[in-house]
Design a protein that fits this description.
Length: 379
């Protein structure tokens, strides 16, 4: 196994439940960042339309989606839905809907989060200007991995992502010796943390979203990182430590370092849970490339322009890990591990766990086609 050994010193788990904290006000953009809300509804932009891509947010009452500028509206998308802006034609935005299909909206009928500028990571990184996109894997009819007792991976992913978003949108102190996260202002709240499926969105965030849509959200705002939250299935061996794996985008610089730091901090968070860990042969920091094309195997990572990772934290298919995932303390520990790894990535030049070289891969990731995907409509 290529993982670097990590201290298993016991530490306290904090913030067992977090209030939703919104990011910066769209009408008061700091610097060149003009996005920054966990979910913004009912607020129309007070500044001119962006000349570069960004995000369009459906306000209270929803927003009409059109097949072409000036055509007939085909549906009213649910309030709170976020759409990557892919083009501008006069008073119209071309957007990508949540099923990864093109559509158009009137500029005056949506709130706007224009594209910012990605910062270099390191000691001078300004967290108060950072924008992260968090992608809770699966959703809607795509449950992901099923648990033995009937649980759904997609629900666990969404709750963990929500906890991570809450951590990112408040300031903290971190004891790096123990891993404890507490109140303080050493690490500022981020300017924005957008979720591809949001708990305050339609159906409580339980809707289907295409891979191209998920990646386009991060690309449209020049996110400082794209973090996909998943859990795994298919154990075939007993392990001495947690079975998590963090896959990185081969084609985007620094994604491997991001993965290594999240892996190191995630293992630190999960190690105190004493169970007979079950897993597979893939652990730690990893990457897969298509054996035919040489591109990133995973569609989300292949499409990302930001440093990007897919985290497989635990195995839903294992009864003990399914039970752990059903507890708030475990899901909070998962979120805290990712938070610490991301903070280290943004504010230092450190590397965490040892990085595996990409491996050639053939297979099927099991995601259903979005052919029958439905954009949530306003009732």
């Amino acid at each position: 196994m290529l993982r670097r050994t990590i201290s298993t010193a016991a530490f306290s788990l904090v913030l067992a439940s977090c209030a939703v904290i919104t990011g910066a006000d769209l009408t008061q953009p700091p610097s060149d960042r003009t996005s920054g809300s966990s979910q913004t509804t009912g607020q129309l932009p007070s500044t001119p339309a962006p000349s570069a891509p960004g995000l369009a947010i459906a306000p209270d009452g929803g927003v009409a989606l059109y097949d072409s500028p000036g055509g007939e509206a085909r549906l009213t998308a649910n309030q709170g839905l976020i759409f990557p802006i892919t083009g501008i034609d006069g008073s119209w935005f071309e957007i990508m809907d949540s099923c990864s299909n093109p559509a158009w909206v009137k500029q005056g009928e949506v709130s706007v989060a224009p594209r910012g500028t990605r910062q270099p990571t390191g000691d001078s990184f300004d967290l108060s200007q950072a924008v992260i996109v968090i992608d809770p894997g699966h959703g809607g009819r795509d449950w992901g991995a099923p648990g033995p007792s009937g649980t759904r991976e997609s629900n666990f992913n969404l709750d963990i992502a929500d906890r991570l978003r809450d951590l990112l949108l408040s300031s903290h102190d971190i004891d790096w010796q123990t891993g404890v996260i507490g109140p303080g202002d050493t690490y500022a709240s981020l300017f924005g943390a957008w979720m591809t499926r949001d708990t305050v969105g339609p159906d409580g965030g339980d809707f289907e979203a295409g891979l191209a849509y998920r990646a386009a959200m991060a690309n449209s705002v020049a996110a400082d990182a794209l973090i996909a939250i998943h859990n795994n299935t298919g154990t075939d061996r007993t392990l001495n430590d947690p079975p998590s794996a963090v896959f990185y985008a081969v084609s985007v610089d620094d994604s491997d370092r991001l993965a290594s730091l999240i892996d190191a901090e995630l293992i630190r968070s999960l190690n105190p849970f004493s169970i007979d860990w079950q897993g597979s042969g893939i652990q730690g920091t990893a990457a897969r490339v298509d054996s035919d094309t040489g591109d990133d195997f995973y569609g989300l990572l292949r499409r990302s322009e930001s440093p990007a990772v897919i985290i497989e934290g635990a195995f839903v298919s294992d009864p003990q890990q399914e039970e752990l995932l059903g507890t708030t303390v475990f899901r909070q520990a998962y979120a805290e591990g990712v938070y610490r790894g991301l903070i280290r990535f943004l504010t230092t030049g450190e590397t965490g766990s040892e990085i595996r070289e990409p491996e050639l891969f053939q297979g099927n990731v099991g995601s259903p086609s979005t052919t029958n995907c439905v954009v949530p409509e306003q009732e």
